[in-house]
Amino acid sequence: MNELEDIKLEALLHEMKLESPEVNFSARVMNKIFEEESEFNKIKSTRILGNGFWIILVLFVALFAITYIVSNSGVLVESELTKIFPGLNTSGVSNGYQSIFEKMGTMPLKIAVILLASSVLLFIERFINANSKVFAI
Amino acid sequence: MEQKDDIFYIEKIKSGQTNHFSYIVEKYKDIVFSIALKVLRNREDAEEMAQESFIKAYKSLHTFKGTAKFSTWLYRITYNNCISEVRKKKQHFVSTNDIEIKDDAEELNLDGIPSENRAKYIKIALQKLPEDDYTLVLLYYFEEQSIEEISKVTKLSASNTKVKLHRARKKLYSILNEMLKEELYTIL
Question: How many CB pairs under 8 A join A and B?
């Protein structure tokens, strides 16, 4: 195999025509790119934190506030009663109040925890969904 | 000049003018398709793979820094895509080592092939070349890529690329020689 033959081969190979894909190949590639790009833009414009998340968050804050107010109001009632009736043994009443408020107080807290957990799950699900589409593109 | 053209269009595409990517597709579709066709041995699969390679290139265009030739970068994507596809399909990737190179390949005289049949012979011989050799020959002769550029595409070392290219050429000569002998026998 000499250099001259190599040059001839090179020239021959240059003359060769390569295989071509179908005529509409370029158009198909471009259509696919435009299609995927528009889908990508759609995903980008979709808010990850939707209305559901904000409603749950507001409910959670409200319930947390209620829990706080209710748990504090027990202490307030006891101190007010002692002021009005100095000789009164308020421990029984306050204990009763305390247990009622405690029961009531833990209820919104439980609901709040459930709401918080569901909002976090909702957020994670939406975030993963959105990102999986972004990465797929 | 060609690289400058590519860079010009790539910058346009990066700035959001997606339609300029059609220039890239139009320019490189034949070579990308030829590599895919050789590896996958099926026109339909090859078209799909070529399309996938262009889309992949488009999506990763932001990672192209322009330090290497765009064509080298694109061929590397195509080549890797094809190799992964072959592995997925568990097809056998024919390598140069699987095919015997005969000593009389050295004696070939291309002038012995009738000029009107030369292109046809070369085409058939190229089709008979193993996938990796075909890619080397294609990139070296058709695309005039340097050994370094080819080694980037195939992930072989420069010296290995050189050796493999030499063997590929020898193999091509060997195939051509065999074809010429067969032709001679049919005439006689």
Answer: 89
* Cβ(B168)–Cβ(B129) below 8 Å: yes
pLDDT tens, position by position, A40-99: 777 777 666 667 777 777 877 887 777 777 666 655 555 666 666 666 666 666 677 667
B156 φ, ψ (degrees, to nearest 5): -95, 160
**Beta carbons of B119 and A25 less than 8 Å apart:** no
**Distance (Å) from the alpha carbon of B15 to chain A's nearest alpha carbon:** 14
Q: What is the DSSP letter of B138?
A: I
The phi-psi region of residue A53 (left if phi > 0; otherwise alpha if psi is between -120 and 50; otherwise beta) is alpha
- ipTM reported for the complex surpasses 0.90: no
Cα B36 from Cα A76, distance rounded (Å): 80
Measured between CA atoms, how close is B86 to chain A, in angstroms? Answer: 20
Cα–Cα distance for residue pair B56/A98, rounded to 1 Å: 66
